[in-house]
């Protein structure tokens, strides 16, 4: 597997043991460009221990080669677990999540202009141009909105990691959009289920719905890049 998209799915299903439990999902893409469900488990999204258990299980089942890059929201225990289990894997923060987090620190009157300025970063033609656009954003917003700027600068390297890969992959690997549509399917299918369920039912229903979503709409292919997938 070359890329992983990672997130925690909260649904209307709730495990009896702990209402904070959600579905912890990893979706990957192979060297052939096929997207596959790598893992689905239950746990706490913010917990390093929950994610590390998943990663150790993957290793125990033979997944010894680390993915080149993992893509996800920064507010997860996954990253600390990844550093321990697969330290060689690159980290890419999702631009959709990061943009929302930054805009939350700005008044509504400033959000449209700031969103366009952020788009100048992740839509830049190359890393050098992206770095320049990021510096412009910092310069324009630092004095009045230091919290917004801090959220951007904190993950500077992880936000621009996708530039290390061939340009034909950028639109897929700079956000978690590749799995958001799958999550929407799961949430939709659980909307009418209001009561708590057993842990096994929670996990089983979640897995089946993700599997159905995968069969129905996860079959997009990343263009194979000789420079990326050589060997």
List the helices and strands and how they pair.
Layout: E1 3-9, E2 14-15, E3 22-29, E4 35-43, H1 48-60, E5 69-72, H2 78-85, E6 90-93, H3 95-103, H4 108-122, H5 127-141, H6 146-154, H7 156-159, H8 170-173, H9 177-189, E7 196-197, H10 199-217, H11 226-229
Parallel strand pairs: 1-5, 2-7, 5-6
Antiparallel strand pairs: 1-3, 3-4
Helix pairs in contact: 1-2, 3-6, 4-5, 5-6, 9-10
Describe the structure.
- This protein has about 230 residues and is α/β, with parallel strands linked by helices.
- The chain has 2 domains: about 5-95 and about 175-230, 2-Layer Sandwich (Nucleotidyltransferase, domain 5), CATH 3.30.420.10; about 95-160.
- Helix content is about 50%, strand content about 15%.
- The strands form 2 sheets. It has a 5-stranded mixed beta sheet, with helices on both faces. The protein has a two-stranded parallel ribbon with strand order 2-7.
- A hairpin with a 5-residue loop joins strand 3 and strand 4 (about 35-45).
- The longest helix is centred in the C-terminal third of the chain and has 19 residues, at about 200-215.
- It starts with a strand and ends with a helix.
Short note summarizing the structure:
This protein has helices at 48-60, 78-85, 95-103, 108-122, 127-141, 146-154, 156-159, 170-173, 177-189, 199-217, 226-229, and strands at residues 3-9, 14-15, 22-29, 35-43, 69-72, 90-93, 196-197. It has 231 residues and is of the alpha/beta class. Helix 1 (48-60) packs parallel to helix 2 (78-85) and helix 5 packs antiparallel against helix 6 (146-154).
